[in-house]
Amino acid sequence: MPQRPQRSDRRPTGDVWRPDEHLRPLPPEYEPVHHDPRYDEPWPVRPPEEGYPDDSPWRRTQRRSRPEPGQWHPGRPAQASHDQGEFHPQDQYGEPGQYAEPGRYLDEDDYEDEGRFVPGFGDDGDAGYESGRADRGGRRARQDNHGGRRRRRRFRWIAPLVALLIIVVPLAVGGLYAYSFYMSKYHPADYSGDGTGSVVVQVTQGENATDLGPELVKLGVVASSRAFVLAAEHSSSAAGLLPGFYRVHRHMQASLAYALLINPNNMVQVTVTIPEGWRESQIVGFLGAKSGIPASAYQAALKNPASLGLPSYSNGKPEGYLFPATYQVVPHETALGVLKGMVQRFDQEAGQVNLAAAAKQVHLTEGQVIIMASLVQAEGGRLSDYPKIARVIYNRLAQRIPLQLDSTVLYGLGKFGIIASDQELSSPSPYNTYRHQGLPPGPIDSPGNAAIQAVLHPVAGNWLYFVTVDPKTGETLFTASQAQFEQFRQELQQNLKQGR
Fold this sequence. Notes:
Layout: H1 89-93, H2 108-114, H3 129-154, H4 158-186, E1 196-203, H5 209-219, H6 225-233, E2 244-250, H7 254-261, E3 270-273, H8 280-290, H9 295-302, E4 326-329, H10 335-352, H11 355-361, H12 366-379, H13 386-398, H14 406-413, H15 422-425, H16 449-456, E5 465-470, E6 475-479, H17 482-497
Antiparallel strand pairs: 1-2, 3-4, 5-6
């Protein structure tokens, strides 16, 4: 049986609240609401009658929360029927906190939340169904109110957290951005070493490190464009980027990549040299074999001569205007680009010799100068003989004598050789200068600068014939006599039989 706590003799003075306020004596008129049996008392036996007498401990009555107004006066409380001593609530409900968690005081709300039974406050027993429902509804309402207060307390931490996030998140994002900006500007990502593998990079005209950097990053050459720009800024070389194609490595240190790209010795290119006197067909075959671009691509480009940028006096034919010289064919170049470069080179040469004005000096058109230069180029052996050959052509044209050049006959037939056969000499080709007087309709090869200069500046002489008697040495003999010409011709045939 729980022990009744000892009362303290200490009394507060005045109107100050006292901790033992609940232990004050109750009015004498107050009666206990029911009989609460003790642990050691025998439980009363239920009477056999159907009902219960009014004084039965089993009968529950409505709680009287306070005495009738005006009837209360200080005094000792009425004692419970089972005990003559003082009344203490602890005897009914136990010590405060006896059945609660340590440090927690069970108030009325705790009883309501836990659904615990409080003696004398209604039950689902004899008080009636309707009163029981009303009582349960009240408890649920109080529980809802108490739960709402708990939920409000539970979410009180959200507001300060949101405020903290509003302040901290922008600062963190701003700090991260500033750090990233600083690192990318002054300490950008960079590889180390010479790198591995190889890749071809094109540097276009006027391109600088800032322009080229993103392309190098895309190709995997450098880690960041900023590192490449810094390498250019810190470079001790006065040379800048040169246009062209370069073979570099992947994952290179930016400073090494920049040093490689400003060195012309590292430029990747294919060098092709077109000799003077080659025909268009020979040039296309050679470029297809040496430039890395198939011959079919050149043939397709030549079918659209308007795209080559030919001069107006070419009559839309590229033969004779693909200037013979040495060219650099870079990777990724197109056949059209190579052919256009050769025509542009012709324009440069024509401009240097002032072709338009010089042609008027010799009473020829610009196109006639190139046609005659192609004949000189095809027939000549030694450069010193070019002005003499040009003089022979001028003399025969002046005397209206057919040129009778085997080179034109063979060109018209699409053949190569030195001497045309009698059958070939009888061909109806417009390039057959044995049958047609004057110059052929167009150039028969690509003449060089020496042949053009020879036409523009021929030497004086009365020669009407010439024969290159030794093809290997290029020895050429000139004469104004037809009989001597026949002798020179026989000498040539004899040398050809000997394999010269």
